[in-house]
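note to self: the first set is below, dont mix up w the second
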Amino acid sequence: MAMELSSRMFHHTVGVLLAILVVATAATSKTDGLCDKSDKAALLAIKSALGNPPALSVWNSSTPCCSWDGVSCNATTARVTDLTIFALNISAPVPAAIANLTKLQTLNLAYNQLYGPIPSFLGPRALPDLTFLRLDGNRLTGTIPPTATVFNLLLTGPLPATFGSAVFGDVDIANNQLTGDASMLFGAKKTLNALRLSRNRFTFDLGRVELPEQLDILVIDHNMVYGSIPAAAAAPGRKWLAFDVSYNQLCGPIPQGRYTHRFGAKHFAGNKCLCDRPLPPCS
């Protein structure tokens, strides 16, 4: 009886150990240390496409990719969530292998010498979790892909229609030559906190837009925006951190509120016929 019990315990222990071994093997096939294998392959392909720059020399097959400079991962899944290749003076197109980092949330490629068009995969179709994209300080051309946050792209042409349905927290597309109707970015229920459209060629009726409830930065100077300033801009609960509508084609009385006292005349100057404080009174 004792021998039978001992034999059963032995076989049970072996079974448990085999089960653990299978799970461990399965986990190893998915991740390499603290790094998803498919993401690691994508990162090595990105490095190669960028010409194997010396600054990325620590990116090699013998170390876990989540420990590499500029790479952050989800602690549970080991998937790459953040990628920063900043100011390395790299001259190359945007690597196609970035599209394989399907759990990427933030991507910062600013201040290199990247050239060519902005790839269409830099948007929710290929990268559904991407909420931050920085490409400024490069030599990229073409239209803006439907990404959630875009900084200082040197681009021309109209905004894509997909911007109207995208979920934004902060939009900065200032200092470009963008045209068309940017009113799609507004909406009372949108979660937009900051909107910077300065020095473009946007044309839309500001008086007809609904200001997002959370919006506390509105900087749209040096465009061709017309109409009037919405009365909601002076709502008692609205706490503006930045407000500038100067050098447009706006008209009518400026809705009076704390923001008109905080932001002086220069933030309203250069319009067609705006009036009242901080500008001269309406006639």
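second set (the one i keep forgetting abt)
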Amino acid sequence: MGHSLGLLGIMQMKLVSTLLPTKPFFLCNCSVPFRLCFWNKTRVLLTRHYSYLRPHSSFSYTNMAQEEGVVVSLQEWQGWGTTSPLPTMVAQIVHDLKGLEQDLDAHMRFGGNGGKLQGNFRIQEDKKHRATYQALADSEKKLQFYSARQIACRILGSRGYLCQKCWLPMEDCMCSEVTSCSLHPGIRFWLYMHPKDFLRQNNTGKILWQVFGVDAASLCLFGIPEHEEIMWNSLKVAGKSKVWCLYPNKSAVLKSVQNAFDQEPVTSDEVAPSELKGETIHHFILIDGTWSNSAAMFRRLQDKAKLVWGDEDLPCISLNPGASAMHKLRPQPSWDRTCTAAAAAGLLSELQLLSQFRSIELDKQAEAIEHALSVLLDALTKRRVRMGRSITRKMRQTNIR
């Protein structure tokens, strides 16, 4: 260069040499001035390590994606069962995990129960994420970070291993045996899913969008602000009278299906999908998570409902008890509790008995869910047998009644 770098340039060189000891200054080969090149690279590294501790900016993910390539594409993200954009914090955490790989010169490995990170990388990443979590200012930020990290790790750990449609290992894919059908356009399901159930092989909520499609059965991930905003925007348009939660909480206002819909006007004319407006669609929220996690998820729904509609509780529907076929493999606290997909099938079956729904064949739509559940049970059973694992349901001790 024909001019002096100056004091600022020397300071930048020293900072870069500290952060990048394996890439000395004189080996750099780029078409832009040295000062700009090194300063941009340094900013990328600093952003990588401190991105959670400051507000989101347009630089944080967009510029890094331009310089180093998007780690998770929109196509890949939506392939797992959603129509949303890639959540900002999930994108940041995925990028930071890949950056940590470079800094440690080690590859991420996943395995064991739940497909968790393994080896020395896990130890270093655990220290980093714990420090980040503790530094976050409030419980809402902590929840968002927790959820995003769970999802980011599950995406990276499932690449090339799980089928994106059915969330089963490739060799056990059941997609060809699932029969799809259309859900009545006056009904929409929302799968309010805990991050620990995302990409879980024996999760049953995924069956609903396998059968009905992602627009009729929409995924909403707990603690992911972009997802929750999409769901609540739709619920606001529909109005509280058209929103129901399927959750057997005795402290909430519970109604049976018949009591909830006995005031609905009876009509023999089925409304065409193109003629339906947001306020004519019934929205059903299914809490998709373990029973231990569901209480916190339901409280979050209740708190949001009070902000949107006032002090009244979010209306809940109770279903007639019935055990799902999945009881054989996936334990429930008691035999009167059921899995997410079976709850959806039970709801459709009970609605079918009402005069205003009798002509739209909800029973056949319920049968499609039950068939897919049987397919999932068969696929999981064959996998367990092949791997030498027990296929006997273990009884679980619980205080839940």
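remember for set 2: Residues 1-69, 266-271, 396-401 have pLDDT under 50 and may be disordered.
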